[in-house]
Every structure is written in structure tokens, then in C-alpha cells.
Specification:
By secondary structure, this protein is of the alpha+beta class. The protein has one domain (2-196). It has helices at residues 2-13, 85-97, 125-143, 158-161, 172-181, 186-196; strands at 16-24, 30-33, 39-42, 44-51, 57-63, 101-108, 118-122. A 5-stranded mixed beta sheet has the order 1-4-5-6-7, with helices on both faces. Strands 2-3 form a two-stranded antiparallel sheet. Helix 2 links the parallel strand 5 (57-63) and strand 6 (101-108). Helix 3 (125-143) runs antiparallel to helix 6. The longest helix has 19 residues, at 125-143. Pfam families: PDDEXK_1.
């Protein structure tokens, strides 16, 4: 089922795979300049790079788990200030292949609805600008020493029975209470501000570099 859906996805873009497990950053890091003049360096591996009919690139990050955590895409690009793989991979592909990335998507190979097989978005100037805001927010938090534990939401089942979500064996409810006590701390505020930044698309601007529709 995934192969059929993925073939349909590529047909809509007129794309074909040109690289898989494409590593970057070992010999030469991906460099992303910040607005204050500093540069962040990245390395990683892109599951798949496709070439679209217009010569631009499509990056695909394969997932075997549930798409539930990703369902906000593309309504939100970076929910809670996270999900940064796609823009990093898109910028890496564009940098090392010498042409722009058109689209970036997570592809889910498990037993999921067809509408959730590919969750992603066009790589626009808006996406790149919001991505820069997100990583600069992360840098500010790291420099200030803001590394608070973020317990799972109370309405999520793993908040009560997931051993990986209970720090030091504490019940997640106790961890939430401890976080609430610290909400006024300016260091914690950096983390809260990062998670609540407006990372949603501007519906009235920047439909895409090529004005194309979302192929998903």
C-alpha cells in the first residue's frame, strides 16, 4: 500500500528518486547563518532525495511509526517549536545538489490512512524564515541554560504508563506540578515562549517559489 501511495505522490510531482540515505556534513557541514552573524552547522542523512519535473528537489523522511504526532502539518510548520528535520534536509539537499528544494515530506510506511501517507509542505521563503526563528529561539534557550523537563500532556495515555515519559520514576502528574511551580522563572519562560511562538503559515503570503500546489 505504501509503494502504491508513494508512486502516486511522485506522479503528482513528476519526480524520481536520485539519492537515498544521502549523508551530509561529514566532509562539509551544512552551514545556516543566523541573523546575529553566527553560523550553525548541521550533519545528518536524508532518507530520500527526489528530482521533480521542474528540476527542483523533493526531500522525503521515511517513518515507520504512527503519523498522529505529525497531523498538524501542514497547518503548522513547526508545532511546539519542533519537527525541524524537513527544513534542515531541504536546505542540505539544495546546498549540496546546487538547486532549490520544492517540497519536503514525512512518508509513513505503516498501516495508516492514505491521507496520512505523506505529511509535508512546499519549501517556501515563509518556511525558511520561520525555521530560522525557531532555531534562533533554541539557541537563546541553550545559551541561557533553559533545559526544563516537559512532561507529557495529561490527556495522553503515555502520561501515566510510559516508562520513558516518567523522569526518574516520578509520576508525570508530579512532574507537571513541579513545572507549574516554576512557570514564573525567566529561564523557564524562554522554553515556554519557544513552544508558543507563532509557527503557523501566513495564509495570505508566499504560496511558494513556483506557486505550485501542495502535492499531498
Amino acid at each position: 500500500e505504501f509503494l502504491v501511495a508513494d508512486s502516486a505522490f511522485r506522479a503528482r510531482l513528476g519526480s524520481r528518486p536520485i539519492a537515498s540515505e544521502h549523508r551530509f556534513g561529514d566532509a562539509e557541514a551544512l552551514r545556516i547563518p543566523l541573523t546575529d552573524g553566527r553560523t550553525l552547522r548541521f550533519r545528518g542523512s536524508i532518507d530520500r532525495v527526489d528530482e521533480a519535473a521542474d528540476g527542483k528537489l523533493v526531500v522525503v523522511d521515511a517513518k515507520t511509526g504512527s503519523p498522529k504526532r505529525y497531523e498538524k502539518l501542514p497547518t503548522e510548520f513547526f508545532p511546539d517549536g519542533s519537527y525541524l528535520q524537513l527544513p534542515v534536509y531541504a536546505l542540505a539537499a539544495a546546498t549540496f545538489h546546487g538547486r532549490p528544494a520544492r517540497h519536503a515530506t514525512y512518508a509513513f510506511a505503516g498501516d495508516v490512512k492514505d491521507s496520512h501517507r505523506h505529511l509535508g509542505y512546499d519549501v517556501t521563503l515563509t518556511v525558511e524564515a520561520l525555521f530560522l526563528e525557531v532555531i534562533e529561539s533554541i539557541v537563546r534557550g541553550i545559551e541561557a541554560g533553559s533545559f526544563p523537563h516537559l512532561p507529557p500532556d495529561a490527556n495522553r495515555p503515555e502520561a501515566y504508563r510510559c516508562p520513558h515519559c516518567s523522569p526518574d520514576g516520578l509520576d508525570a502528574r508530579r512532574a507537571r506540578t513541579a513545572r507549574a511551580r516554576k512557570e514564573a522563572d525567566p529561564i523557564l519562560a524562554l522554553h515556554t515562549d519557544h513552544r508558543t511562538m507563532d509557527h503557523e503559515p501566513d495564509q495570505g503570503a508566499d504560496p511558494g517559489r513556483d506557486g505550485g500546489e501542495d502535492p499531498t
